[in-house]
Amino acid sequence: MRWSGARIAQSARFNLMGERFSHFAFVRGVVPGQHPVMSMRVILITGANGGLGQAIARAFLKESADNVVWLGVRKRREKAEQLVQENVERSFCVALDVAAAQSWSLAIKEILARHRRLDVLVNNAGSHEDALLAAMTADSWQRVLGTNLDGVFHGCQAVLPTMIGQRGGRIVNISSLSALRAPAGQANYAAAKAGAVALTQSLAKEVARIGITVNAVCPGFVETEALTKLAGEERATVQKRIPMRRFGRPEEVAAAVRFLASAEASYITGSTLKVDGGIL
């Protein structure tokens, strides 16, 4: 962590989660009408074991040598742990079941114990259990909403005390094109992702005055694990529906997320950004 040439912009004491601590914002420069550009930012990304989560993590690590990225994972930790090994002292894994409020509380407590701040939350964890509604089980409905909607609710609620105390923060919720154009066979997933967009818009209004922005990103067809089942003619047919005639790259979605979490995006909140090659 490099603080050379930085100046202390503000110092405050808070009582968060039952612990008192000092908060210091180290600033390289202040742009009028924008949040300060931090010399160190602490970022938490959920679903960091998948292709999109990995790309988002790498985008933040590349953005600044001072950034610290926490990878929230529940299982299949191999890729996340590999990224941690590649970025010692700049990247960390934290156990996190996004559908469980207590798991969020423990994860945030672990992050604050080490860094005493949290600047960016990316709610990226997601899951599919596609089926026609007539055949969909109640358990399938609950599991998909638990990960894709409850997870966003718990995550936002868990980080708000810290961000409110800091009087600043960025929340980016990864939704889906299915939220805006719901396909058959995805009633659970589309409903959850649409709910995440609505939650984003509502929360953005609640915290706008205290320097916290909340935005959503709706990726279209992106080259991740979710597209591995597409092959041959089916893959070609889907690509023809995309005006750009290709699938997106995880890095392209990650760039949108990184921008919405940047100081340059300080006047953007409650927005839903499509990254879909022009489908909608």
Describe this structure in words.
By secondary structure, the chain is an alpha/beta fold. It has a single domain (29-271), classed as Rossmann fold, CATH 3.40.50.720. 38% of the residues lie in helices and 22% in strands. It has helices at residues 51-63, 78-86, 101-115, 138-166, 187-207, 232-240, 250-260; strands at residues 7-16, 19-29, 37-38, 42-46, 68-73, 91-95, 120-123, 169-174, 212-219, 272-275. The strands form 2 sheets. A 7-stranded parallel sheet has the order 6-5-4-7-8-9-10, sandwiched between helices. Helix 1 crosses helix 7 (250-260), helix 3 packs parallel to helix 4 and helix 4 (138-166) packs parallel to helix 5 (187-207). The protein is globular and about 50 Å long.
Output the CATH class name.
Answer: Alpha Beta
Shape: globular
CATH homology superfamily: NAD(P)-binding Rossmann-like Domain
Number of helices: 7
Biggest sheet features: 7 strands, parallel
Cα gyration radius (Å): 19 Å
How many independent structural domains?
1
Tell me what the CATH architecture is.
3-Layer(aba) Sandwich
Q: First CA to last CA: what distance? A: 42 Å
Order of helices and strands: EEEEHEHEHEHEHEHHE
Ranges where pLDDT stays below 50 over 5 or more residues in a row are 1-35
- Averaged pLDDT: 87
Structural class: alpha/beta
Strand order of the largest sheet: 6-5-4-7-8-9-10
Q: Roughly what fraction of the amino acids lie in strands?
A: 15-25%
Extended strand count: 10
Give me the CATH fold name: Rossmann fold
